[in-house]
Design goal:
With 706 residues, the chain is α+β, with helices and mostly antiparallel strands. Helices cover 25% and strands 20% of the residues. It starts with 15 loop residues before the first strand and ends with a helix. It is a peripheral membrane protein.
Length: 706
């Protein structure tokens, strides 16, 4: 395949560009001048489940996810690629594992030395005490102590015309769900919040020592602390973690949650149901059996497990028969009736059993599996995946399904259904025809998408996450399965086969920490406007969270909260900035795996500068490249769009060189700024890589990557 003509662009450390091409830039490029509305229009609201961000050299490797925006907030576009990131990288306790992609199993994690510059806050003449910076130098960063947030630049330009250059852009990556070790930054009491805008008291607010009042960094209003912040000196106020750290967790445990289970890890009491494709050929089945045997051996003794097989029928295995693989069989062509489910749940069979009592039976069940015998192509075999998940959900609910919804909350955190799929759902509810050439395929696919989404929402209402692990060479029809995983707060992951990588992800799917009922609130100084969000969330309705009189925060509801998730934020300045600093506060509220209510508050302060050179020196090439990549990929939904986006990247690099570079003496060429010399190289790899380049593989790989 011939390579497309290359633009007159260099990708060395100091690339140069011809001014001839730059003179016609306004005619050719989709990047308008800074004062015109966004040069790269944010994409429309999208429902992609998975997208892949380019991997980066050191700190961030980020996988993005769904979407979200709050009504009445200043944000104009909220985009949604991918659901929660996959779990193929080892857990690194000392770093937030922002990941690169589901097909790169060893991404780099954040360096513990990541830093964002801050400096001491402005002084006040009214007796307020500033907080508390403890001699931190101007160019160091509190955020480096807890790298949950990475900004594309550590400084902000004062002038709007200089700051809002869409070809470079400004924004941040945030990973809100990372577990933190117990320490002084964990607070077991209610937070102090601004009664006007809802912001939290933090390290940068100013405090009146005599009265304990504190000034909000977002709206500048004074708030009371019920006398708690009254102190003889500002050093005494350092005993309050929220006034001494940029990141704190407010924790409320079982006293307000009747379902709280005081065990060492409540995940052990949450059941796991394996839903296994029985239409596999012998080579795939052998690999799957090995992975399943290793999986049950890895589970804690108290973990309850269920096993369901699906093909043309649904087989629910009974653990009451020791050392014998015994199953009850239900038809797969339609959803199970209430009578059949009652007979299953109230019968004599045991369908959920702790591993310490059922390990030999589980091994016997896996050993009894047999390869598919009929002479039918893989893609044409009848698979009733939707019915099987319905049955698995009914088993998890058990007799409590008879009680009105919302009255009973089962203890033990999120239950899990893990689907091991080797082909598409072609039989029963939520299915699509075997062939794309079916005359009614588009209509049936539309119905299947809606049905799968409803099933995922039903699972989410019952605190059950559905993870779908796919493997093999047969396309599984990603668009049909995506809504099920996404709506339940789970993930969908592709594998080449059912071997080692599949087995590792199977084990991690059962043990990874996942919070629920997540809510992300983002507050910024009045000078900052959030223009786009990409991440695993959706619009939060007003009645789902606490509101304040002058609350202008962007509020996002998260279906699940996991340490590998991330959001990317694109921002602009509303006008010339008058103050010396701008502030950002991220508040994440969720229930963790121990059923404790967590409110995590992260506060960041960035200095405002007038020097373009100082700003460029603070630019983080890797973060800027990821933000640019996500905005670009959201518009590359098919091959022709991808070709257009490659051209857009070329024009973007030219525009950055023109705006921030310097012209070579006695030449029409422009030299790229040395402060951001790595950026064009990273964008070059985006341009030539599989996300925008030619994608080799079957339809699942194309859909997953695009």
């Amino acid at each position: 395949m011939a390579n497309p003509p290359q633009p007159n662009v260099g990708y060395s450390n100091n690339p140069s560009y011809s001014s001839e091409s730059s003179t016609s830039l306004s005619e050719k490029t989709p990047i308008p001048p800074p004062l015109i509305s966004p040069k790269f229009p944010p994409p429309t609201f999208q429902q992609d489940q998975t997208a892949i961000s380019p991997s980066i050299r050191s700190p961030p490797n980020v996988l993005s996810s769904s979407n979200g925006v709050k009504s009445g907030s200043p944000i104009s576009h909220l985009s949604t690629p991918p659901g929660p990131p996959v779990f193929t990288s080892p857990v690194r306790p000392a770093a937030v594992p922002f990941r690169a992609s589901p097909v790169t199993p060893q991404p780099l994690a954040f360096s513990s030395g990541s830093s964002i510059p801050t400096s001491s806050p402005p002084q006040f003449s009214n007796g307020l005490v500033d907080f508390p910076h403890q001699g931190v130098p101007e160019d160091s960063a509190h955020v480096g102590e807890a790298p949950f947030v990475l900004f594309s630049a550590h400084k902000v330009l004062k002038q709007k015309k200089q700051a809002n250059v869409p070809s470079l852009g400004f924004g941040a990556l945030i990973s809100p769900g990372k577990e933190i070790s117990p320490g002084p930054q964990i607070i077991q009491r209610d937070p102090h919040r601004c009664q006007s805008c809802g912001a939290y008291a933090n390290i940068y607010c100013s405090v009146l020592l005599g009265s304990g009042q504190w000034q909000c960094i977002i709206c500048r209003k004074l708030n009371g602390s019920e006398g708690e912040y009254i102190a003889p000196s500002k050093e005494d106020l350092l005993n309050f973690p929220e006034l001494a750290s940029t990141m704190v967790d407010y924790v409320q445990t079982g006293n307000k949650r009747p379902g709280f289970v005081p065990v060492s890890d409540s995940r052990t009491s949450a059941p796991i149901v394996l839903v296994i494709d029985e239409c596999l050929d012998e080579p795939h089945l052998q690999h799957l059996q090995s992975s399943l045997h290793a999986f049950v051996d890895s589970l804690p003794p108290t973990t309850r497990i269920g096993i369901v097989l699906y093909g043309r029928t649904v087989s629910v295995y009974d653990f009451s028969e020791e050392l014998v693989a015994s199953a009850d069989v239900l038809p797969g062509e339609k959803s199970p009736s209430q009578e059949s489910l009652k007979g299953l749940i109230y019968g004599t069979g045991i369908y959920l059993s702790p591993m310490h009592a059922s390990l030999p039976v589980a091994h016997a069940i896996f050993s009894s599996l047999r390869p598919y015998k009929l002479n039918v192509a893989e893609a044409s075999r009848d698979r009733c995946l939707g019915t099987a998940v319905e049955v698995a959900l009914a088993i998890i609910q058990g007799p409590s399904a008879e009680i009105s919804r919302g009255v009973i909350k089962r203890s033990g955190g999120n239950s899990r259904i893990i689907v091991c799929a080797g082909g598409p759902n072609t039989y029963g509810p939520g299915s699509v025809p075997h062939s794309f050439s079916h005359p009614n395929y588009p209509h049936m696919e539309k119905l299947a998408l809606k049905w799968m989404e409803n099933l995922g929402q039903e699972a989410h209402r019952h605190n059950t996450v559905v993870d779908i692990l796919c493997a093999g060479t047969c396309p599984v029809r990603i668009p049909v399965l995506q809504p099920l995983a996404k709506a339940s707060g789970g993930v969908l992951v592709l594998h080449d086969d059912f071997g080692e990588a599949f087995g590792v992800n199977l084990q991690r799917a059962a043990t990874r920490a996942a919070g629920s009922h997540g809510l992300l609130e983002i507050r910024c100084s009045d000078d900052i406007l959030i223009t786009q969000v990409v991440g695993p969330g959706e619009e939060a309705h007003v009645d789902t969270h606490e509101t304040f009189k002058n609350d202008t925060s962007l509020c996002i509801q998260m279906l699940s909260v996991e340490e590998t998730q991330s959001f990317s934020l694109s921002m602009e300045t509303k006008g010339d900035i008058k103050s010396d600093y701008v502030f950002f506060q991220f508040a994440i509220q969720y229930s963790n795996v121990y059923q404790a209510d967590i409110s995590r508050v992260i506060t960041v302060r960035l200095p405002v500068v007038t020097s373009v050179s100082a700003y460029l020196q603070s630019v983080q090439d890797e973060v800027a490249a990821v933000l640019i990549a996500k905005r670009t990929l959201l518009r590359a939904k098919n091959y022709s769009d991808a070709i257009d986006m490659r051209k857009t990247i070329d024009e973007r690099i030219k525009d950055i060189a023109l705006k921030f570079g310097s012209q070579v003496p006695k030449s029409k060429l422009y030299r790229f700024s040395k402060e951001i010399s790595l950026l064009p190289e990273l964008l070059f790899h985006l341009r030539r890589g599989p996300l925008l380049g030619s994608i080799v593989g079957h339809e699942d790989e194309s859909l997953m990557q695009q």
